[in-house]
Amino acid sequence: MAYAYSPGLKVLESVTLQRDRRLPLSGKIIVSQGDSVSAEQVVMMTEMPGKADMMNIVSMLGCLPGEIGKYMKKEAGDSIKMHELIAESSSFFGLFKTRIESPIDGTIESISPVTGQLTLRGKPIPVEVKAYIDGKVLSTDGKENVIVETTGSFIQGIFGVGGETCGNIEIAVQSPNIPLTIDSLSENHKDKIVVGGSYVTYDVLMRAKEIGVKAIIVGGFDDSDLKKFLGFDLGVAITGQEKLGLTLVITEGFGEIPMAEKTFNLLCKYAGMRTSVNGATQIRAGVMRPEIIIPHPSAQKAADEKETKLVLEIGKSVRVIREPFFGKIGIIKSLPVELTKLPTESMARVLEVEFENGERAVIPRANVEVIAMD
């Protein structure tokens, strides 16, 4: 039997999730298989090499490369403090001296008698990796990898910025159709994951940053405000590395678009629960969506996330991702096999969808994405 597969977003109330936590290079794992961990708990750590500084010693001393040794006060491998003496030369019977001091705290990595270059290495940069989600350590390789598993609700957004964060869900609006405004926010939202409705503006995001909100989840956002919020034009890139002080997850798209009721209702159901959010997004090859994970191990029905098939089938929920019905959500009512002529005169496979208001439309299959619901 043939299937039509489509890109899509997952909105699942109960699912078993695994997240791979990894160091950039080998380090120390400080948890063991089977350990219970919290989202903000450090599970492994390492040290990245510090920045390298090159110094042309021969030029500074006015000597030949082979003569460096007699002027050096330190050797390769020695630790050194900022302003500590590295080398010194004198001339005119000691009346004039040239002193070379270290510009940084670090280590003398190498001294070349061939080029006359000295390499200073700054202090190692500590790197800590947190669990990101509340759960249990499923496995670890003992060097640079820990897999954390949890059971709970899982929601994918359509776009996001900002990295991993964690806090309790706070619903700031009464319905998914209501925009998140400055008046919706208060000092009580500090360190919270705030859920809005249809829209958020740049000014509201800045107010949320002032308060100390951890993340905002909302239906829509303007691309012009995105540029202001980031401080640069994003272009085609992977998001999630921005240092914004706030993570933003858009569940529907750009513009003022009400959050899908099922998404909003699921977030409302678990209001007050500790939640992990990641705004990392990649649209092209190796698609990565922003995500919201609400661990609740008491979930009665746990299923592997991978088992959810994003297949176009009658009865499946879909979101339209192109005009003229952009952002609308509906149910697939039929999937004609034959090609259909579009208003553009091109031929394409289509589907019939019924929107939430009862309106029906025939839409190219390429213009929709499946919303996976359990």
Please name the defining characteristics of this protein.
single chain; 374 residues; mainly beta; Glucose Oxidase, domain 1; OB fold (Dihydrolipoamide Acetyltransferase, E2P); 3 domains; 16-stranded mixed sheet; four-stranded antiparallel sheet; disordered N terminus
Overview of the molecule:
This protein is mostly beta strands and 374 residues long. It folds into three domains: 10-18 and 149-295, Phosphohistidine domain (Glucose Oxidase, domain 1, 3-Layer(bba) Sandwich), CATH 3.50.30; 52-122, OB fold (Dihydrolipoamide Acetyltransferase, E2P); 312-373, SH3 type barrels, CATH 2.30.30. The protein contains four helices and 27 strands. It has helices spanning 57-61, 202-211, 223-230, 261-269; strands spanning 8-22, 28-29, 36-37, 42-48, 52-56, 79-80, 85-91, 96-101, 106-111, 117-122, 125-130, 135-140, 145-156, 159-161, 164-171, 192-195, 215-221, 247-254, 274-278, 291-295, 317-320, 329-334, 340-341, 347-348, 350-355, 360-364, 368-373. The chain has a 16-stranded mixed β-sheet that branches. The longest helix has 10 residues, at 202-211.
Number of helices: 4
CATH architecture of the largest domain: 3-Layer(bba) Sandwich
- How much helix, percentage-wise, in residues? under 10%
User: Average pLDDT value?
Assistant: 87
Number of separate structural domains: 3
Structural class: mainly beta
Query: What's the story with the biggest beta sheet?
Result: 16 strands, mixed
Give the CATH class of the largest domain. Alpha Beta
User: How many beta-strand segments?
Assistant: 27
- In terms of DSSP E residues, the strand content is 35-45%
Q: What is the third-level CATH name, the topology of the largest domain?
A: Glucose Oxidase, domain 1
By CATH's scheme, which homologous superfamily of the largest domain applies?
Phosphohistidine domain
Global morphology: elongated
> Gap between N and C termini, in Å?
23 Å
Rg calc: 28 Å
pLDDT under 50 segments (min length 5)?
Answer: 1-6, 302-307
